[in-house]
Design a protein that fits this description.
Elements (H helix, E strand, L loop, with lengths): L10 H10 L1 H14 L4 H10 L17 H14 L1 H17 L4 H8 L8 E3 L5 E5 L2 E11 L9 E8 L5 E8 L5 E3 L13 E11 L3 E3 L19 H28 L16 H32 L7 H10 L3 H14 L11 H13 L6 H12 L16
Parallel strand pairs: 1-4
Antiparallel strand pairs: 2-3, 3-7, 4-5, 5-8, 6-7
Length: about 400
């Protein structure tokens, strides 16, 4: 598969493919939630559209595009089905992570089938022990979205002591034959993501299949292609944020469709479109959604300005983008909840797609990448000249 020729679509072409899928995905969204996983035919449609190749290295048939291409695709897909878009986000980000590792990993993963997908579970639920030549993983890793479709295995997170005895947070590529899946994904929202538990029993992972999780580290940056000089957390966090933005835009879509034909039976204004509060809340919600979208796309573009030229992104840019992306979930949930309240009792029926959309946004906003309560102090402190805490996710060592 090395150096193979691939027909790479333009950004406009691949984003248009996502936009065209919105009605189809919306029709399937209820069934996806009930099945608690995205169906195989939807994943296959995403494969054919090239969504999983956006961040995949060209060496193995990928496109190596600007991460904002994936972000824009995710925004469109989430307007139709949040759970399906979430699977594209998770399964579509991990080819980027392969680009950080030794080429041996990509060869092992994609040499005979470059469409294999990888899921993940980064929270260090299980245990990791350093041994000669690698690591031993054992235990349970929760919430691995899209794992049923991940024939390429999973990236698992764990804490382990380095050579100096300091604890570091690492990611480990584990092959699909080395874990079992336990279906425990019974949740209030994003039920269709199939984010099930992975069971690992004393699995050896060679050292070359692992890297320190963070924006930058000596073992993964410097020798890689330009795309992979992007901060890992910047790419990952912006992708999650993009799905949530798309969910909120989908909520606005549904709200408009609901309100345009509606008549207010107990108010003098008659048509709902003439109600100043209905109009006002929609406008305010749209401002929040637009602001969140502009911020995430701008953050990615600012980092890309450096990486696309083969340069490492400056620390202040990494900190600012990492931090400000995390306010997306709060902004989008506020926007969605604001207009949901104006649907009155009509929005609360299980037959209404708006209640599902709101629950999906609620769960998306609970993701660790949207931890706005804890991040403002780090950003503000860095802007005021405070040293970054040790350890930190930016690869910055104490001076």
């Amino acid at each position: 598969m090395n150096n193979m020729t691939v027909q790479i679509p333009t950004e406009e072409e691949i984003v248009a493919r996502a936009t065209q899928m919105i009605p189809w995905l919306r029709e399937k969204a209820d069934a996806v939630e009930k099945a608690r996983m995205v169906p195989e035919d939807t994943i296959q449609a995403f494969q054919e559209a090239g969504f999983f190749r956006i961040l995949q290295p060209k060496r193995w048939g990928g496109y190596e595009m600007n991460p904002n291409v994936l972000n824009k695709v995710l925004i469109e897909l989430a307007r139709g089905c949040p759970s399906s878009a979430w699977n594209v986000m998770v399964l579509g980000v991990h080819p980027f992570e392969v680009g950080l590792l030794d080429n041996t990993v990509g060869d092992e993963l994609w040499s005979d089938d470059n469409s294999r997908l990888i899921s993940s579970s980064y929270a260090p639920f299980g245990t990791v022990k350093a041994v000669e030549g690698g690591y031993i993983l054992n235990g349970e890793w929760l919430t691995s979205s899209g794992c049923d479709h991940a024939a390429g295995g999973a990236f698992l997170g764990g804490r382990v002591a380095d050579a100096e005895g300091n604890m570091e947070f690492r990611s480990f590529w584990v092959q699909r034959s080395d874990f079992e899946i336990e279906d425990d994904w019974f949740v209030v929202g994003l039920a269709g993501t199939g984010s099930k538990k992975l069971l690992i029993n004393e699995v050896f992972v060679p050292a070359y299949r692992s890297h320190v999780i963070g924006d930058y580290c000596d073992e993964t940056h410097g020798h890689v292609n330009n795309l992979y000089k992007m901060p890992f957390f910047g790419v990952f966090y912006s992708a999650v944020s993009s799905v949530i933005i798309g969910m909120a835009k989908g909520m606005a879509d549904l709200y408009i469709e609901h309100m345009v034909p509606r008549q207010n039976l107990n108010q003098a204004v008659g048509a709902a479109v003439n109600d100043p509060f209905i109009k006002g809340k929609l406008g305010e919600a749209q401002a929040k959604i637009t602001g969140a979208e502009a911020r995430v796309l701008m953050n990615t573009e600012e980092a890309w300005k450096y990486a696309s030229k083969g340069e490492l992104v400056p620390t202040d840019v990494r900190v600012r983008t990492f931090a400000t992306n995390q306010f997306t979930g709060g902004d989008c949930f506020e926007a969605a909840h604001m207009i949901f309240k104006k649907t009155s009792t009509r929005g609360v029926w299980l037959s209404s797609p708006m209640q599902r959309q709101l629950r999906d946004i609620l769960v998306g906003a609970n993701h660790i990448t949207q931890n706005q309560d804890n991040i403002g102090e780090l950003l503000g402190g860095q802007m005021l000249g405070n040293p970054l805490p040790q350890p930190n996710p930016f690869g910055v060592k104490a001076q």
